[in-house]
């Protein structure tokens, strides 16, 4: 049996093993389908093999990839690849905030984006909420100790006469969680690390206007306009609380619509998630456009 001899990519700090699969995954980030990405990755591998060396510098590899993308597709895509690689190497952190109601697909999306851009820290706001529940008792913060879509049940009667009680309850529930979100962002800034925070509690109104304007903070809200698909997501993505979520779907949709509305009136991006491949591509594209302003 013949085994391919390994090729190592040399960097300043350390070397790593070249992988066609990993390169293909990185090529997907610029919009190539996996089959296209893997075929191009294999062509690049064959070019490297012709050098008859078991080591290639990272800059030389990037040159091969750039020229191959440019030849097979376009100069614009080739430059996007280099920009993303530069982002991976930069010391400038990215803070990506992905908001969305329960069941719109933001958790899966966040993990994929983290892999695409080499971000190691992905934190869901549910985790922050659970930690705060240990700190703030039910007597102090009753809204925090109920699901967001049922937090209205903790409201005093005065709230019920003028405003939608589900939305008021959701806001009161979320404001406590945002204490922890603010601490997370401050920590990320202090340690100069990239982070993705995702969850239903990330109302843009809770973010300071100056914070939202920070060039390396990227805020996105995920929308799912098709209610049928949203309901199917709740049935397929959740097991233990599935029946409860379906029972209160109307309240979850109210929160969805409110979050989307609050995002739009602040002229922040809302990305539709009816098509899973399209939403990933659109989020990637938006992050790339934003990071160009950070790096260059």
From TrEMBL:
Official protein name in the record: 2-phosphoglycerate kinase
Originating organism: Candidatus Heimdallarchaeum endolithica
UniProt xrefs under SUPFAM superfamilies: P-loop containing nucleoside triphosphate hydrolases
InterPro entries the UniProt entry points to: P-loop_NTPase (IPR027417)
Top-level taxon: Archaea
